[in-house]
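Good morning C.,

I know you're traveling, so I'll keep this short. The sequence:
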Amino acid sequence: MASSGRKRVPYFFVWRKRRSCSHSKRKDRKKYPAINIVGVRNGYFDESENQTIVKEIASTKPDILFVAFSSPMKEYWISEHLLDLNVPFVMGVGGSFDVLAGKTKRAPRWMQKFGLEWFYRFIQEPRRMWKRYIVGNLKFVIYTYQTREK
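The tokens, ready to paste straight into the viewer:
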């Protein structure tokens, strides 16, 4: 974002949390004063609003759209609306904005280095993350084992 601010690349952010949305936008503008944020939208909407939101995003003509929903919601939403958004670069960023906004801590460097950031997140929010990491990972391992070449 630092280098794109000098080029005035237009960004649009879609957050899942209401508070992170405005807080992170203020921090981004402070850290990157030249950043060109053409739109910010919280992710609290239901399916009936999808087309209105897609039109809102497309009308601002961003070059980059970051979608901060949880997995797999962001992947489904992006896939469903990608063509109508008409944005050259769309990326699902999960909880990255919560980290930028200072609402969620990143794992220590050593955990990042060894690929354990997921475990750090699990320890921070076990009630919310247990299903994703325990059930989801187990399903993945079983599926991978069942579909391997024999």
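Safe travels,
E.
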